[in-house]
Specification:
Blueprint: H1 3-13, H2 29-39, H3 44-57, H4 61-66, H5 69-76, H6 83-99, H7 107-111, H8 118-129, H9 138-147, H10 158-167, H11 174-188, H12 206-210, E1 228-237, E2 241-246, E3 257-258, E4 284-285, E5 290-293, E6 298-308, E7 318-322, H13 333-343
Helix pairs in contact: 1-11, 2-3, 2-8, 8-11, 9-10, 9-11
This protein binds iron/sulfur cluster (SF4).
Length: 344
């Protein structure tokens, strides 16, 4: 496998992305790290505006470390997988406290930071420091398993894929190589209908030779999480306020904002829903349900709505928020869906 062929392809076809360095330059570790954390499980298109917003608000890791966690969560709202935002902040604080605001330039030093696993450490090391590392994401997994026709299924095949990806590293330009591998997977070696005729490795790719490219990477059968159900209560006060609360400090969507609701369980019964209502009111059950898929389980919420008089007090643990200002709260996507279902 000739890594120079891939680099030559990259020089001609590199995608213009907001976090990319100009040709021949390195990217700042803060920008690489920020973009890589945001891009986990999230598309380039969705990340673009969030990346720009974060950089405008917190242009350096020191500025991000000095921010309040609530402000970071608020700015992150809508990107999903909120543990990433908490780790982002914790990592910025660690870079400032342990390293004087300068990212370490070794894989081990980077891996020691909160929220930085092998993938992100490799991405920052390669792209910001040109270290000998290859970040292996889903795109790179696809390219490597096809090039070598790896029969072993994911996730067991991961160590082998990593080893083979490292064996392809060129003697220099590790950062460009990492980005070239990702680009090749994202734009040419796509899950369906890869454009093999445009691929710089089409003459050496084993899967292409066999004609079964689309069957790689092999995957172990998926275990679907069991459906959970619950109820959500949208209360509107006569003066245009909505009842919200903050989720507990630990667990799923920790510290994020939500409308009051029941627990989300496998055996949730609709007849018990109103027992979880935050206050006495003439509750209306809204037609349909709100569905959302978390990493480990799908969720189905039945939404109840009520209007209450202006003098109504917020129950313990909840607060009234002006409806016009609710968008600035750290509302996760599932809660944005609930509000849209109830209010639109
Ligand atoms: S030849 Fe086709 S399958 Fe093989 S790496 Fe290139 S795009 Fe992927």
């Amino acid at each position: 496998m000739d890594s120079q062929a891939l680099l030559a392809w990259y020089d001609r076809h590199a995608r213009v992305l907001p976090w990319r360095a100009r040709k021949g330059q390195r990217q700042e570790p803060y920008r690489v790290w920020l973009s890589e954390i945001m891009l986990q499980q999230t598309t380039v298109k969705t990340v673009g505006p969030y990346y720009a917003k974060f950089l405008a608000q917190w242009p350096t890791v020191t500025a991000l470390a000095a921010a309040k966690l609530d402000d970071v969560l608020r700015a992150w709202a809508g990107l999903g997988y909120y543990a990433r935002a908490r780790n982002l902040h914790a990592c910025a604080v660690a870079v400032v406290e342990r390293h004087g605001g300068v990212f370490p330039d070794t894989l081990d030093g980077l891996r020691d930071l909160p929220g930085i696993g092998d993938y992100t450490a490799s991405a920052v090391a390669a792209i910001a420091f040109d270290a000998d590392a290859v970040p292996v994401d889903g795109n790179v997994e696809r390219v490597v398993t096809r090039l070598f026709a790896i029969e072993e299924a994911l996730p067991a095949a991961k160590p082998r894929i990593k080893e083979l990806a490292l064996s392809l590293l060129p003697p220099s330009r590790s950062g460009d190589f990492a980005q070239a591998m990702m680009d090749l997977g994202a734009t040419i070696c796509t899950p369906k209908k890869p454009a093999c005729s445009l691929c710089p490795w089409n003459d050496v790719c084993l899967a292409r030779e066999r004609g079964d490219q689309e069957t790689f990477p092999r995957k172990a059968p998926k275990r679907e999480g069991k459906l959970r159900r619950g109820a959500a209560f949208v209360v509107l006060r006569a003066d245009g306020h909505i009842l919200l609360r903050t989720r507990p400090d630990k667990g799923l969507l920790a510290k994020m904002t939500e409308v009051p609701g029941s627990a989300w369980t496998h055996d949730f019964q609709l007849k018990d829903a109103e027992a979880a209502a935050p206050l006495d009111a003439a509750w209306r059950r809204l037609p349909g349900t709100v569905t959302h898929v978390f990493t480990h389980f799908p969720l189905e919420l039945t939404v109840f709505a009520a209007e209450v008089p202006r003098a109504t007090k917020a129950p313990e643990g909840a607060r009234w928020v002006k409806l016009a200002e609710a968008h600035a709260e750290a509302l996760p996507t599932v809660m944005r869906k609930v509000l849209a279902h109830a209010l639109e």
